[in-house]
Design brief:
By secondary structure, this protein is an alpha/beta fold. The chain folds into 2 domains: 125 residues, Rossmann fold, CATH 3.40.50; 58 residues. Helix content is 38%, strand content 15%. A 6-stranded parallel sheet has the order 3-2-1-4-5-6. The longest helix is centred in the middle third of the chain and has 16 residues. The chain is globular, with a radius of gyration of 16 Å. The protein starts with a strand and ends in a 10-residue tail after the last strand. The relative contact order is 0.19. The protein binds magnesium ion. The site of magnesium ion has 7 residues, from loops.
């Protein structure tokens, strides 16, 4: 089978990348950041900016955007587990494919750099045009932190694995059959 895996929130710690950028470029705001991030809107954890201001800061601020996307740390447990999981999947006849949505051409290039920098190897790489189109690629399973992605994958009849975070586990969110707290747990599922 072909296993899709997301980048931000599963392999790359995008939130820490943003926080680091604010600490360096906007130090007067760093104490106003609200962590953990508990929702999908920027205003929840970056309350000093409007949604549009945060959006521009993260995706369209030149050097700051480059910093966020190239210097964000990996999710610690994922970088530890990655090669073991890839080997486990290959040993069992499966393939591991990156399926990532990056909102601009620029951040997609930074993301490719980040993947190389951390020596992450995939059997295929798919760049999707949005959250809801990840399901359309040649994958049987999708590991993701984004509920919108997980629901659309599940609704399409494919299998979805929620990578559990502080922001995707609200009691009102859909119960998922498959959930993991770190990558190595997929050995119990696949
Ligand atoms: Mg994600």
């Amino acid at each position: 089978m072909r296993i899709g895996i997301d980048l931000d929130g599963v392999l790359r710690d995008f939130v820490s990348g943003v926080v680091q950028a604010i600490a360096i470029h906007n130090p007067s705001l760093i104490h106003k950041v609200e962590l953990p991030m508990l929702g999908y809107s920027f205003t929840q954890w970056l309350p000093f900016w409007t949604e549009k201001e945060s959006d521009d800061y993260v995706f369209r601020s030149g050097d700051i955007t480059e910093y966020i996307y190239t210097q964000a740390p990996p999710i610690a447990t994922s970088i530890v587990d990655f090669n073991k999981i890839r080997k486990y999947l290959h040993d069992n006849g499966h393939e591991l494919c990156l399926v990532s949505y990056q909102p601009t051409e620029e951040v997609m290039e930074y993301s490719k750099y980040w993947i190389d920098k951390h020596n992450l190897r995939f059997d295929d790489v798919y760049w999707s045009s949005g959250h809801d189109t990840k399901k359309d690629f040649d994958i049987d399973w999708m590991i993701d932190d984004n509920n919108q992605v997980l629901y659309s994958v599940e609704d399409s009849g494919k299998k979805a694995i929620r990578f559990v975070t502080a922001y995707n586990m609200h009691e009102n969110y859909r119960h998922m059959k498959y959930e993991i707290n770190r990558l190595k747990e997929i050995r119990k599922i696949i």
